[in-house]
Amino acid sequence: MREGSAEGARPRLEARGLACVRGGRVLFRGLGLAVGAGELLLVEGPNGAGKTTLLRVLCGLREPEAGEVRWAGLPLRRAGMVFRASVVYVGHAPGLKDDLTALENLAVAAALGGRAPAIDPREALARVGLGERAHVRAGALSAGQRRRLGLARLLVRPASLWVLDEPLSAVDRAGAGLVADLLRGHLDAGGLAVVTSHAPLGVPGERVRTLRLEGGAVTEGAA
Amino acid sequence: MAWTFLTTRGLDGLAARWAPRLLAVSALLLVAGLYGGLVLAPTDEEQGEAYRIIYVHVPAAWLSLYGYVAMAAFGAVALIWRIRVAEVMMAAAAPVGAAFTALALATGSIWGKPMWGTWWVWDARLTSELILLFLYIGVMALRAAAEDPRAGARAAAILALAGVVNVPIVHFSVEWWNTLHQGPTVTRLAAPAIHPAMLAPLLVMAAAFMVYHAGAVLLRARCLLAREPAAALAEEAA
Amino acid sequence: MSAGAAGAFAALVRRDLLLAWRRRGDRLVPLAFFVMVTALFPLGVSPERAVLATLAPGVVWAGAVLATLLGMDTLFRSDLEDGTLEQMLLSPLPAPVLVLAKVLAHWLVTGLPLVLAGPVLAGALHLPAHAQPVLVAGLLLGTPALSLVGAVGASLTVGLRRGGMLLPVLLLPLYVPVLTFGAGAVAAAAAGLPAAGHLYALGAILALAATLAPWAAAAGLRISVA
After folding, report:
1. Residues of A in contact with B229 (CB under 8 A)
2. Is B48 helix (H, G, I), strand (E, B) or coil?
3. Who among C162, C177, C216 is closest to B162 (CB)?
4. Which of A94, B187, C48, C123 is deepest in the core (most CB within 10 A)?
């Protein structure tokens, strides 16, 4: 019975016994984690430790060599559309078309969400500080502005799980403040987040748990 | 447990035990079949001794199709149930099947010289066989091009399945094209009402090729497993 | 299809058409290639009317197949590079529907111009006028099938560094039936024979490709983004 009620169940991301191999090398094995409502899991580790790979596994873009990821108690493969409706991923690639304007890019992202956007794309642009640049081609925006435009997806797509890969790269101090605001609002509303970052996120410590990947070893603890 | 062959180590053990036996059996069958076909079988009234190449050509053509279907079946298992062993078997089956296809093409071409006075005719069957070889080459090239062997095997499996849909359509289209351009087809690979003394060695040769196929695929699977320590690594990680 | 899926389908088709329009120079390459390949035959074989007329069905169809092939690698490549492809696969909407949207936009931009140019080029090769309707009908049925099958190949090679080199090797054997039926239809019509059988076969191939290819391409894309 529990299996069928994914939509009503409390959002919870769990993983058990995850193993990933890349380039003939085991990135990690036996990795387990759990993230509940209002929690942020900060994934730390040196370059090449498998942080991005882990994030891609957690949002279902990549299959682990072993183990499984569960969303609200259901394995990702079974949770399918329910899970994908609940997750927004902002990765290294910006997910933007250089030849489309900021607004056009965001409108397509909203349409791919499959339901009405949480807020109007124009308003989302204003909130990430791109209100004036709505009709500028994404290719003509600066690196920091492109990052903000990618983050604006978090506003138009109503999702309970945010998976963010280095959201602070290329943004200025104001941009970092924006990311902190977005994350705090999301967590306060009962959202979940899995984030990698080299810089402090500005999120209250009691909400954050860390997972450290290093040379295949995994350690977990509070920040 | 009976299902241990589903692990890479289990497959390795199975292949170590069976590949030599199968290859030995196929060698025996091959000797018997060739003796039957080249010595015992009567001379053909119309084609003389030249027809004897069918004892290689026809079983090779059969095996080229059988090998393709086997490869695609392993691919389907690999995609649906995500069984790593099936990925390895699919990858191992591709070059063996391609070799039979090349053999069928070469013998068909050699047979064409005395029959039609030319090394190559755009006959429906030979043309289909050539396209089949291209499909095999595509599967092998795609698998080899991927950096991650698992991703390569799964991509190649999708291509192999697309080929399975394609092969009968190719055959049908080429047959139709052929009749349009050349009138009734000129080849009769299996002569109508073949004499039993001619048929028996043909079947023995087909059996020899099939057993060889199984043995060679298992042997290649062992080689692939030895070359990819990552596979075993991941299984240990599980 | 749900309202959400229909909306996303339309948004994706519109997006790709808009992108094609903003880079319209690039999108003309397959068409230019089609014209040039066709022009090689009078130069390379013979400008004689009778010779060209017999070659015309095969030349036009082979040109259309090669031109489609040339444009196929671009179908998913830029989407993979800028990360919009992974966003597409993370959408709650079924990936085969989104693939179908991309193929439709791609065909409108690269396939449809080939259908329109086909009779002009065939006329230049002295194809009898009464065979022209069959050529157009065949191209209308055949080029979408080429785009659909091409999407499967493009989905499998998009993640590879030299995928563009590999793609023709994967696709040409899969394109053989469309070529033989398409050229066969025109040749039959030119000879005054009925061509309906060939066209039915092309229609069947299109139906089969439209049913299976989006699923296969979606599965291929999942492998390529991983």
Report:
1. 24
2. strand
3. C216
4. A94
